[in-house]
Request: fold
Amino acid sequence: MSKPCIICVAITGSLPTKANNPAVPITVAEQIESTHEAFEAGAAIMHAHVRNDDQTPSSDPEKFAALQEGVEKHCPGMIIQLSTGGRSGAGKTRGGMLPLSPDMASLSVGSNNFPTRVYENPPDLVDWLASEMRTYGIKPEVEAFDLSHIHQAAKMHAEGQIIDTPYVQFVMGVKNAMPVDRDVFDYYVKTVKRLFGDDAPWCAAGIGAHQLTLNEWAVSSGGHARTGLEDNVRLDREKLAPSNAALVKRVVDLCQTYERPVATWQQARAILGLKKEVAQADG
Reply:
């Protein structure tokens, strides 16, 4: 299998703190440094949240702007994907960073259960977020926590709310949501191919101890893989992950095992249809 594999690194998230793992990057400076290490290790996409000084989640557009500027400077060409997730804010505050026109942004198209609450994505908010992404030329990454979310992405594409072929990421292993089930995973892949075409790119993310399992399923099945300290802070039961780069390296090793090249940022942009010009590094 020679299809390049795009590695996405989810560097921080909204939940892990330094009490969980001291390597979790919290400040903008820490996030830029961690992203640079992950970029050099092989990640082509960075998925970003921002935090307050007390480590609580934030939707502050100024923090996102500083993070985006730093990553563009130190990781030229890397695809920047900002989160519109619901733990960082409510309502339209979740899309307050979209005028920054990042390459991509996450888009959850339906609601589902989370460990202690309902992850609410009401239709009017989903429609507004999708509209903002179209306005600012942002490619959505559809977060599929359920089979219905893939079908909703197809409906939104047919109605022009998502312009290009949807890029769907399967999220498995969240407590009270979709468990890690190989039959379900295979059906997700089949559904994406049936709705969007055999060559439609897709990604998968596993939460906690399931991260490596989903990495392997995705790499071995021709998909793209998400890793990072947002989803999992450990290398195994005994060891904390020393960095985001270390988790990226695990995916790189899987790519070697399954004879798939790791996608460069240029290849990743071509696969995802991202046409935005990229500033060249100084010197």
Summary: The longest strand covers residues 139-144. The two ends are 37 Å apart (CA to CA).
